[in-house]
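Quick start: what a row looks like.
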Amino acid sequence: MDFSIGDDRQMLADTMSRFLAKEFGWEKRLKTIETDDGFDRDVWNQMAELGVLGALFSEDAGGFGGSAFDIGTVFGEVGRAIATGPFLGTLMAGRLLAAAGEHEVLEGVISGEKLVTFAHEPAYDAETGKTSDATASGSGDTSTLDGAKGVVEYLGAADLIVVTAGDKAYFVDASAGGVEKVDYKMVDGGSGGELRLSGASAKELSGVDGAAIAETVAAGIVGLTWESVAIMDQLKDQTLEYMRTRKQFGVPIGKFQALQHRMATLALEIEQARSAAINTAAYFDKPERDQYCAAGKYTCARVGSLAAEEAIQIHGGIGMTWELPLSHYAKRMVMLGHILGDEDEHLQRYIELMRAA
């Protein structure tokens, strides 16, 4: 089978790879993740000029791509460079804006003029164990939102927020009255936040229903699985390089058969994860979409945890140090395993979907 992504997408991937290597190298990353926003707005705008954001959306919506493989291509390079920025929020919020025909708003997002994020998960109170979600009243341009959302990607820097409430979605100006943003740093170097809404004015996104939100979540899962596989490749490659140079008893540790077997097992598992990620894109427009998304998210979360654990164990203590890039890849991999549902949730979802099929 031909697993190539095609000439146009390969050109996009090569362009992103060169750009991120030049503008978002390791030293730049260390400085960027110390900022309040957790990403560089100038780099973001340059990526918008390169067309990276436009690749996430169809021509009808003002972009020039929008297919599942286009999404996978962008997120694969994001993972390879461990780039920070609201890629997932832009993808998911943007797709709902496109579904609602809000093309003028989306045009500002694609150009980098406006930053949008996606508030979908209920807020969770760690002390009480209770969750609270957003609720809506009114309709159309006169809607208001109350409640809360949790772990909203790059909330502090967002100009616009797309908020889900039940089977509907709403468009909120982040600076509007009744909108409170409590942002914080994430373990992977990015930023997130808790969104609190109190009678906040919102605009209902026309035509967006539960099916459109499910399609948007599936698009997000496509991106996350491709980003996960790219990070697993980095964890594997950096560990293999370490095994070639780190010596014990006068020989490289890569000569030890036990470590060779562990890395061979990991390589096989990563290839399974790669196939699962490809399937999420290949079946995105088919009736089996949700089964393949659940299988892909489960597989990437499971194998990603293995890749992170093996990389750190073989490196030893140095694998957990802030100065070593590998530790940052491992942290991002662990986070990816939990975004839009963890391993257990998607295994259960896959079982339920297969029983219902």
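That is the whole record. The first strand starts at residue 116 and ends at 119. The mean pLDDT is 96.
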